[in-house]
From TrEMBL:
InterPro entries in UniProt: Acyl_CoA_acyltransferase (IPR016181), Bact_Acetyltransf (IPR050832), GNAT_dom (IPR000182)
Gene Ontology molecular function: acyltransferase activity, transferring groups other than amino-acyl groups
Entry protein name: GNAT family N-acetyltransferase
Domain N-acetyltransferase: 1-168
SUPFAM superfamilies on file: Acyl-CoA N-acyltransferases (Nat) (SSF55729)
Lineage, broadest ranks: Bacteria, Bacillati, Bacillota, Bacilli, Bacillales
Keywords, comma-separated and alphabetical: Acyltransferase, Transferase
Length: 169
């Protein structure tokens, strides 16, 4: 598996991947995303800025994620532990439905942590809809700590913020 930055010529493939993931999430009663989010124009910008990363397996996209230092205003009230270092924020993590159930999300998180350490980040922050049990279990199982519950204005269900401090190498 290769962990690479998405290329402009992969934009349509990435957009289609997110559409398929949203359909599957909705079928499983996980309404974290919708047909309005993530928007194709946002995914295109993520790729253009170099923030979109892909986990590829034999030329197929197994997973996608956006990594940067941007965060929503709701993060301001979270009691983060790492307040002095640089933190990387994980956005829009998704696993291709064809690859689900194979441990891909765990592999992707390992790649994200390795990249974050290489780039000098001291922690990683992310969030997920609390009703997304698989994501909640994943993050806790790989050492992410719950930092606080919050609501996005567009959702009536709560989200959980997670953080993992990184060991400096």
């Amino acid at each position: 598996m290769k962990f690479v930055q998405a290329k402009i010529n992969q934009t349509e493939e990435v957009i289609q991947l997110y559409r398929e993931v949203v359909k599957l999430m909705n079928r499983n009663n996980i309404y974290q995303w919708s047909e309005d989010y993530p928007r194709p124009e946002d995914l295109k910008k993520d790729i253009e800025k170099g923030d979109m990363y892909l986990l590829e397996d034999q030329g197929k996209i197994a997973a996608a994620v956006v990594l940067n230092e941007q965060y929503d205003a709701e993060y301001e009230d979270i009691p983060w532990e790492d307040r002095t270092g640089r933190f990387l924020v994980v956005h829009r993590l998704c696993v291709n439905p064809d690859f689900q159930g194979q441990g891909i999300s765990k592999i992707l998180m390992e790649k994200i942590e390795a990249l974050a350490q290489e780039l000098g980040y001291t922690s990683i922050r992310l969030d997920t809809l609390m009703a997304n049990g698989k994501a909640m279990n994943l993050y806790e199982s790989i050492g992410y700590e719950k930092r606080g519950q919050f609501y996005f204005p567009s959702h009536d269900q709560p989200f959980m913020a997670f953080e993992k401090k990184l060991v400096q190498i």
